[in-house]
Amino acid sequence: MAVDQPDEPDRLPCGTMLDTLLAHLRADTLNEHEQHCPHCRSAAARHRSLVDAAAAAERDQAGAPPELLDRVMRVVRAEGRSADLIPLNDPGPGATRVRDTTAARILRAACEPVEGIDVGRCRIADTEDGIVVTMTARAVAGTPIPEATREIRRAVLASARDQLGWTIARVDIEIIDVE
Amino acid sequence: MGIHPDTRDETLVERAQDGDTGAFEELVRRHQDTVFRIALRTLDDHGEAADAAQEALITAWRKLPDLGDARTFRAWLYRIAHRRALNIIRARRATAAIDDEAAVPDPASGPEHQSMASSLRAALDTALAGLPPPQRTCWILRELEGLGYEEIAEIVDATPTAVRGRIHRARTQLVEALEPWR
User: Can you supply a Gene Ontology BP term from the record (chain B) (predicted)?
Assistant: First the structure.
């Protein structure tokens, strides 16, 4: 065993990482080895007061002031994001346009009931071909992705038609992660 | 258009990047306490910490579209808060004469007036106040906020190895300071 372990100053001679030992000490879940190994026992005895003090400190930590959320959200809502306006097929008189960010919320909400898949980004572009929706999504492990994306498309097309009066040219879905 | 409580941060971040203020609101709900505490521990002033937290969260909203990997949001946000607080400290030092030493938490009254638990707590506060600030920050992020070394490194702008070293030194010193309670 090297004398100098700059990357691992916290590995005990028995191989246990101090971090792991402290986490177990704190959760009161010391394993068989940690309960009997002399290195672990002595490290645990040395750190017990600190672990107890930290647990107490963690319990009475200050939370954010109650008005913080409102203050932040007031500014956020006032600023919004720069948004494109996309026309609705509205016979008028006058024109109705919807912000792309608003339309994205409507489409994302329509996808919420689809099981096993979470839509993240949703971009809407008014192209020569018509309105194109691009989504990123994360799938829950084990989800049959083709079925889930079929349902997503169906939900997007239906809500675009019913709520926005749009005929969507294309829905591109990028699965970016499986969890 | 409710947000499921189990919707992951990454998904909310992506929605917020697209301009969904509701998604951002949920992110603020989830992280405002830690953001506030990061500022509070650096500034030791409730009002200033509240202002710093507010500025940090608004900055995060403005810069969010530039965040490349949504999974790094938490560390990225806490880093904004930490830097904001440090900037306030620097401005404070630049403008104010050194009229009083940086406020150190009251070491509190003697153990005889308090339960064992709270005097141990007080001893920890005193010992923490005696640590060099970078060590104190790293130890707190690790032990009180439960963050990983990589995330802490990102927040305080250091390497994970340096963070490990700081936490190691902080622990050694804190354990010594709490020796009487063993």
Answer: DNA-templated transcription initiation
Lowest mean pLDDT among A17-21, A33-37, A126-130, B114-118: B114-118
DSSP H helical segments within A28-144, as ranges? 32-36, 38-59, 68-79, 100-111
Please report residues of B whose CB lies closer than 8 A to that of A76: 21, 24-25, 58, 61
Question: What is the pLDDT averaged over residues A16-31?
Answer: 92
Enumerate residues 6+ apart whose C-beta is below 8 A from A132.
Answer: A124, A125, A168, A169, A170, A171, A172
Maximum Cα–Cα distance across chain B = 57
What's the CA dihedral at B57, B61, B63, B65 to 10 degrees?
A: 150
Question: What span, in angstroms and rounded, lies between the C-alpha atoms of A120 and A89?
Answer: 27
The full set of domains in chain B, from first to last, is 1-98 (1.10.1740.10), 109-177 (1.10.10.10)
Q: What is the pLDDT of residues A152-166, one digit of tens each?
A: 999 999 999 999 999
Higher pLDDT, A61 or B111: A61
Q: Contact A50/B174, CB-based, under 8 Å? A: yes
What is the per-residue pLDDT across A110-132, written as a single tens digit (0 to 9) for each? Answer: 999 999 999 988 999 888 888 99
From chain A, the residues in CB contact with B168 under 8 A are 9-10
